[in-house]
Write a structure and sequence with these properties.
- With about 425 residues, this protein is of the alpha+beta class.
- About 50% of the residues lie in helices and about 10% in strands.
- The protein contains 18 helices and six strands.
- A six-stranded mixed beta sheet has the order 2-1-5-4-3-6.
- Helix 7 crosses helix 8.
- The chain is extended, with a radius of gyration of 30 Å.
Length: about 425
């Protein structure tokens, strides 16, 4: 008995049948005769004008030497999504979105190439953004480049003197040779450190090149952004020993402070209770009212739950990002200022006012996220001292239908944001307009 297939899997089988027949070099009439149907009926099937039943599909698969599934299954969801994203990235092309299944069925190879190219372009745009972030704002990189250029100029000047002057006193010649050797050593060391830093290798971190914040965040990333030992009694010393092994004193200090804060919050809000409350209602303010913790503390706990898909950014009153837990599709700048439209900064201007927003990232494949931002103020020195503000923004992927709320378009930072018409733009972008 031929296997029964759902109607949705039979709608575009004709394109797949036609491509298989052409690939084998068979005539339409010959295939129709062997399958026991008329050539005109097969012609209608191949052009998706007639529905092909399971029994006919089974006979055609036998004639064409193919599996029934290969002639009945439409384009995979991931490929279809990539093709739609590629079309959205070039709206002026006016791609026929309703014919994606037909296109991928008739030309599966070209469809895969197009989808792969679209993904590759997105990856290159992200790489350009990251490199620009480094080249524009990274103080270590600027200093390193200056050091390399300085050593190179010194080597060039010394070599020019030796090459152009014949009657140099032997003592001076020896001095020039010594300077040339020392400058070349300095150039080699500087170049090696610079390459290691740009490669993001472990050698850069061991040499103290990575910032203390990056070292701490790298430690958390290696642990999957979850400190499981804090959920059990007696687990803190082991984590403290790990922190003591970080590369620099500054990184150890940052990580120790973060660890102490996380330990207090873990005791106040156990993971089991957090998981139950978050599944019931994903509202940090509600959970904070139940537990007595601050909303910022609950947000941190949510972002560091095991296998949490939430991203997190924290800043102080200057807008400097103090903590960054990335989430796929939402670019976080490594250096310099972030997008001024982030709800994080709106919250910073309005302490204790929760801000819930749906945002859409810029790029060839825009993504939707739900963000929850809030700012809290502290007076560590009393009324006579300064008010210290700290704001956090929880970033949650929006996987469901497009929300009915107004969607706020934003980017990572102006320099690499393709939205040229943004009212908050500070400087021209190095990326072409794509949305």
């Amino acid at each position: 008995m031929p296997r029964s297939l759902p109607p949705s899997s039979l709608s575009l089988s004709g394109s797949l049948i036609r491509e298989r027949r052409l690939a084998l070099g068979l005539r339409q009439g010959e295939v129709a005769r062997q399958a026991g149907i008329s050539a005109s009926y097969l012609n209608l099937i191949e052009h998706n004008r007639r529905r092909v039943g399971p029994d006919v599909l089974d006979r055609l698969a036998t004639v064409l030497g193919a599996e029934v599934a290969s002639l009945s299954e439409g384009v995979g969801g991931a490929l279809a999504d990539d093709l739609r994203a590629a079309a959205a990235a070039s709206p002026s092309a006016q791609a026929e979105l309703e014919r994606i299944e037909d296109f991928a069925g008739r030309f599966p190879g070209w469809a895969a190439v197009l989808a792969a190219q679209h993904r590759r372009v997105g990856q290159l745009e992200q790489a350009v953004g990251a490199l620009n972030d480094r080249l524009t704002h990274d103080p270590y990189l600027s200093t390193s480049l200056h050091e390399v250029l300085s050593a190179l100029s010194s080597v060039r000047s010394t070599a020019a003197i030796l090459a152009d002057t014949e009657d140099i006193d032997p003592d001076w010649r020896a001095r020039f040779h010594r300077n040339l050797h020392e400058d070349s050593e300095r150039l080699a060391v500087g170049a090696e450190a610079l390459v290691a830093y740009l490669d993001g290798s472990d050698a850069a971190e061991e040499a103290g090149i990575a910032s203390p914040q990056e070292v701490m965040e790298g430690w958390l990333a290696d642990r999957g952004w979850h400190l499981a030992e804090l959920e059990d009694e007696g687990g803190l010393p082991g984590l403290q020993a790990e922190v003591a092994g970080l590369a620099s004193a500054a990184a150890r200090s940052l990580a120790a402070a973060f660890l102490a804060q996380a330990a207090v919050e873990a005791r106040a809000l156990p993971l089991a209770q957090l998981a139950v409350e978050w599944a019931q209602d994903a509202d940090p303010a509600r959970i904070a009212s139940l537990t007595g913790l601050s909303v910022l503390a609950v947000i941190r706990r949510v972002a560091l739950m095991p296998e949490s898909r939430a991203g997190l950014v924290v800043c102080d009153a200057s807008g400097t990002l103090l903590f960054r837990k990335p989430v796929e599709g939402f670019a976080l700048p490594r250096f310099g200022a972030a997008c001024p439209l982030w709800p994080l900064f709106s919250a910073l201007a309005r302490p204790m006012t929760p801000i819930l927003a749906c945002v859409e990232t810029a790029g060839r494949a825009p993504r939707l996220f739900r963000t929850l931002a809030i700012c809290e103020a502290r007076l560590p020195q009393g009324f006579a001292g300064p008010q210290l503000r700290e704001a956090a923004m929880l970033i949650l992927p929006e996987d469901g239908p497009r929300p009915t709320l107004q969607v706020l378009p934003l980017g990572p930072s102006c320099r690499i944001c393709p939205r040229s018409q943004c009212p908050a733009r500070r400087e021209p972008s190095i990326l072409a307009e794509s949305a």
